[in-house]
Every structure is written in C-alpha cells, then in structure tokens.
Write a structure and sequence with these properties.
Length: 209
C-alpha cells in the first residue's frame, strides 16, 4: 500500500496528525519520501497539499533531502489552490540553499510570485527563498539583490522583515552595496513593527562586523 494512502486527506483526517505520522515514517525511511514526492504530480488539490506539507516538514529537519524535488515543487507554484502554492513555496524556501542553481534559473518565476501572488504567505516564502539563495555565493547574492531590495517596499512594505533578513545573508558577498544596505537598515530601524526593527538591526550589524 502506498504511503500516500496514509495522508490526512486520504483517511478523512481534518487535522495534521496523519501527515505528521507520514513525516516521521519518511524521516526513518528515505524511500518513502520519494513516494510522497511522486504524489506532487497528482491532480487532487488536497493530496497535493498534503504531499507538499510533508516535504515542508521533512525539510525543516533535513532540507537536503527535499532539494532533489525542487523542480516538482516549482511546478506547483502556479496552482490555483493557495495551500498547494504556500506549502510548495515553503518547502522550496527551506531547501533553496541545497539546490541554488535550480532556483536561480527560476528567478523570473519567483519575481512574478513576489509581485503578483494574492497570498501574503506565498510571497513571504518566495522572499525567504531569495534570501537563502543570496547566502550561497557571490553570484547568487548579485542576482538576488535587486529583487530583495525591491521587496522592501512592495505591497506597502508588508514583506520588509523577510527582505531585510535576505539582505543580511547577502551582505558578506556584496561589499560594494554596503552603503545601500546600511541606508535600508537605517530606514527600517524606525518601523512600528518590532520584527522589522530587529531585522534592520541584524542587517546593520552584518555590515559593521
């Protein structure tokens, strides 16, 4: 019997308990994770969401295990069901550092998501993915910098905290941009939101150290 039959949507479980049991089994047996990843090609939105959720939870502990499935997850980013998109984007954000080239090749897709997706959560995770990429190499930092900088002000600054975190990861690779980064840190250090002020302070420290 396929591991997919044990997922929440397949057993009528309205909680995450069944999916979490599948996660534990996948952590013990990597071959089961392949079965879950194969489920990303199904047409049932509930099953797709479950599969992506399992990959997300596995990636929280072992992101390198999920990296090989980046292409399959990318294929879900235009799905009409919000849960499918946000779980797929969350898994990708967690695994991005382990498959940078795959995601760098999809920067136009990530840009489209950040600019157009109706879900704040999906956009947050897309910016998190950019931040993870930015911390992998000088070339990745250069490529992601324009989008991360633009994300500071997109959607009335709703994603500024996530963008600042990404810029902090890119700072060691972008000495020539430190003036711009410092200006961003100063601007958001006066934010009314504590999480944004904290991210701005971290960015400032990354430049000064």
């Amino acid at each position: 019997m396929s591991i997919l039959s044990e997922l929440s949507s397949q057993v009528g479980d309205r909680t995450q308990a069944s999916n979490q049991r599948v996660v534990l089994r996948c952590l013990e047996d990597l071959s089961l994770l392949n079965e879950v990843a194969n489920g990303l090609s199904h047409t049932d939105p509930a099953l797709l969401g479950d599969c992506a959720e399992v990959l997300t939870q596995v990636a929280e502990q072992n992101p390198q295990w999920v990296a090989p499935f980046a292409d399959s997850l990318m294929n879900l980013l235009q799905h009409k069901t919000t849960r499918v998109r946000w779980e797929a984007m969350h898994a990708l954000a967690l695994a991005a550092a382990y498959t940078p080239q795959t995601l760098l090749e999809k920067l136009p897709t990530l840009s489209e998501i950040i600019h157009q997706d109706a879900s704040i959560i999906v956009r947050d995770y897309a910016i998190d993915a950019l931040g993870s990429l930015a911390g992998t190499s000088s070339s990745a930092a250069q490529l992601t910098f324009p989008l991360l900088k633009e994300s500071l002000s997109l959607w009335n600054g709703r994603h500024a905290g996530h963008a600042l975190q990404g810029l902090t990861k890119s700072a060691p690779f972008l000495p020539e941009a430190h003036a711009q980064l410092f200006a961003a840190a100063e601007e958001f250090s006066q934010s009314s939101k504590a999480v944004i002020r904290k991210a701005a302070a971290a960015l400032r420290r990354s430049i000064q150290n």
